[in-house]
Every structure is written in structure tokens, then in C-alpha cells.
Amino acid sequence: MDLPGIAITDSVDRVRVDQLTGFFVGWPRRPSAEMHRSILRRSDRVLIASDTHTESVVGFVTVLTDGLIAAHITLLEVLPGHQRRGIGTELVRRMLDSLGPLAMIDALCDEEVLPFYRSFGVTRVVGVAWRDTTTLTATDDSARMI
Predict the structure, then answer these.
(1) Digit-coded pLDDT (tens) for 61-100
(2) 104 φ, ψ to 5°?
(3) Residues 6+ apart with CB under 8 A from 43
(4) Rounded CA separation 33/9 (Å)
(5) Helix, strand, coil proportions of the chain in percent (round to 5)?
(6) What is the pLDDT of residue 145?
(7) What is the mean pLDDT of residues 20-26?
(8) Which residues have CB under 8 Å from 38's CB, separation 6+?
(9) pLDDT for the residue 142
(10) In degrees rounded to 5, what are phi and psi of residue 99?
């Protein structure tokens, strides 16, 4: 799918901290831009959507995977001003294509986002999660991250 004015890449090398502002809307404690860049770098797979005019990052998706049978979409974010333009859909579509025929691809999401994922034919399953937002206070690569 062609998204006018949007470039999608799997390279984190040129992403600068100043390009990572405005994400994690509604989170009780937002990761810093430095931690955000570390998350992108440490993920097994990543896709980044950037505005071709401003070069700012407008969306991203990250995945942890064993590369054999399972993958977990850990984060999908699109800046509020860029939502409903197909960016999130394209990021997920490309990520699913890149993961190939794995037996399990999972994602956890809030209830209000479930209709978005249903458009990809997901099956709702029972799951559990441990969440501790106090771990989001660190700002550098040496910080404790879950």
C-alpha cells in the first residue's frame, strides 16, 4: 500500500531521540525518548514510519520473537495527528508479512483497540500480564528494562 508522504523502514540506525516525541499517549508514565530509542534498538523486529517532509517518526511497531514458532507484537503506536491514515494498518500488515507462517503471533491491547486488530482476523484468547509502570523512569540504555 502506498502511503503518500510516509516512508517505512526497518532500520533504527538513523532514528534520533528528537524524532521520538508525542508517543505513548494515555500511558500513566511515558517512556522517555531515550528509552523509546532503546526499545526500538533492542526489539527483534521493528518497522518505523516517518514523514518524508519533516523526517519525524510518526509511527512504529516492535516485535519480540524466537523466529521459529512464536512472536509477540509488543508495541504499535501512531502519533494522534497521523492516525486514521492507514499507517498503523500498513505497519502491522508489513510486520505480519515479515514474520511469515509462525504458529503464534500475539498482541495485548486495550479493549478500545480490539476492533483494529480484528480487521486482521485475530482470535481473541485468554491471557495474563504483569505490568509495573515504575520501571519506566530510567532514561538510558543501562537502565533496568523488562
Answers:
(1) 999 999 999 999 999 999 999 999 999 999 999 999 999 9
(2) -140, 120
(3) 62, 63, 64, 74
(4) 19
(5) 30, 25, 50
(6) 42
(7) 95
(8) 140, 141, 143, 145
(9) 44
(10) -80, -20
Contacts for 6 with CB less than 8 Å, ≥ 6 apart: 49, 50, 51, 52, 58, 85, 87, 90
Residue type, 22: G
For the residues of 46-103, what is the DSSP string, one character each? EEEEEETTT--EEEEEEEEE-SSSEEEEEEEEE-GGGTTSSHHHHHHHHHHHHH-S-S
Asked if pLDDT for residue 133 goes beyond 90, the answer is no
Task: Please name the amino acid found at residue 117.
Answer: Y
Residue that is written with C-alpha cell 502511503 in the block = 3
**Domains, the chain:** 6-137 (3.40.630.30)
